[in-house]
Amino acid sequence: MAHCHIMGVSMGRKPSAAQDKFIVRLPDGMREQLKAAAEGNGRSMTSEVVERLRASFEKEEAQHVPDFTAAVLVETVEQEFQTLRNKISALEEAQSMLIQELRQHMAKKPG
């Protein structure tokens, strides 16, 4: 997360003393893996951990959204199809009436 300093004041983040802290025990080798990933991404190890946690939470949230979105999408498509069926029915009725009027008009014309 980028932030800027204006006259010694950090903008966009709490001072580190005011931020939540959490001690984590890592399995053997994970600290080195984390350090390498952080360096590769141009971040501190803390920023790397925070970014990876944020990404995993976003992924988890996104997995729950499609069920709701799919249900809404299905309902919307069904409504649109019903609207189209109603319009087609009205057009067929209008077509039938026009054909009937045309036949009556042609029957009245002399031969």
Rg calculated over all Cα atoms: 33 Å
Tell me about the biggest sheet? 2 strands, antiparallel
Distance between the termini: 86 Å
**H/I helix tally:** 2
Q: Strand pairing plus helix content: what structural class?
A: mainly alpha
Number of strands: 2
Low-confidence stretches: 1-11
Order of helices and strands: EEHH
**What best-fitting shape do the alpha-carbon axes yield?**
rod-shaped
What is the spatial order of strands in the main beta sheet? Answer: 1-2
In short, what is this structure?
The protein has 111 residues and is mainly α.
Q: Any overview of this molecule?
A:
This protein has helices at residues 30-40, 45-108; strands spanning 4-6, 9-11. With 111 residues, the protein is mainly alpha-helical. It has a two-stranded antiparallel ribbon. A hairpin with a 2-residue loop joins β1 (4-6) and β2 (9-11). α1 packs across α2 (45-108).
Task: Write the topology of this structure.
Layout: E1 4-6, E2 9-11, H1 30-40, H2 45-108
Antiparallel strand pairs: 1-2
Helix pairs in contact: 1-2
